[in-house]
Amino acid sequence: MTAPLVALTDQTLGWGGQAVLRGVTLQVAPGERIVLLGRSGVGKSTLLATLHDRLTKRTALVPQDHGLVGSLSVFHNVWMGVLDDHGTAGNLRCLLWPRRSERSRVEGILDVVGLAGMGRHRVSRLSGGQRQRVALARALLRGGEVVLGDEPVTALDPAQGAALLDHLGGRFATSILALHDVDQALRVATRIVGLRAGGIAIDAPATELTEADLLALYR
User: Fold this and answer.
1) Which domain of life does the protein's organism represent (predicted)?
2) pLDDT above 70: percentage of residues in the chain
């Protein structure tokens, strides 16, 4: 039997000394595509952060606040995804004088997310949707075994969001995504974890769930 990538057993999760979720038992197996659903503030971000902290494999993260540095260029924000692959001297040199090969590598990813030619633009001047694309590009450049995303496509229209979720699915073997769109969840997930009233209310294969089952999480 394949060992789980991460496992939680009867855990109380929260922040600032305040419990948000109680009795959380959850395992993530390699190759799963898990979507977290539930009302705003129910604890999706808390659960996602806990899983991220406890994963030991290489992971890419798309945080809800994007995690970008507004004063830097799109290129440099995307390149942050691979900073830990290079030494201090190399990263400093790239900050000041990026090589053509490095810019080309990032440009290829920017083309995928719909930001072709924008590598030199300052992030502070971008729209919310463009910033979300930068965060997605950073995750795609980083790569790894697992991607975690906290509402990673909320600023995009449904068609754009669906396409970029598909790119994440093609780049990473395992994904754990907090989404708000039930239709998207049923389309991309192999398993759905629904949160309600301070705990896990649903944990089942997506093929066994209906839209009505999931909408009950929001009542």
Assistant:
1) Bacteria
2) 100
Q: Which amino acid is at 41?
A: G
Residue appearing with tokens 């463009």: 130
The secondary element (H helix, E strand) that includes residue 89 is: helix 88-96
**pTM for this entry:** 0.94
Token duo for residue 195: 């949160």
What domains can be seen in the chain, in order of their start residue? 1-58+144-219 (3.40.50.300), 69-143 (no CATH)
Q: Which helix (H) or strand (E) covers residue 79, if one does? A: helix 74-79
Strand order in the sheet with 174-178: 59-62, 146-150, 174-178, 33-37, 191-196, 199-205
Distance between CA 152 and CA 16 in Å, rounded?
25
Instruction: Specify the amino acid at residue 104.
Output: S
Strands 59-62 and 191-196: unpaired
pLDDT, tens digit, 9 for 90 and up, residues 72-117: 999 999 999 999 999 999 999 999 999 999 999 999 999 999 999 9
List residues bridging with 27 in a β-sheet.
7
Q: Report DSSP state, residue 3.
A: P
**How far apart (Å, rounded) are the C-alpha atoms in residues 123 and 195?**
34
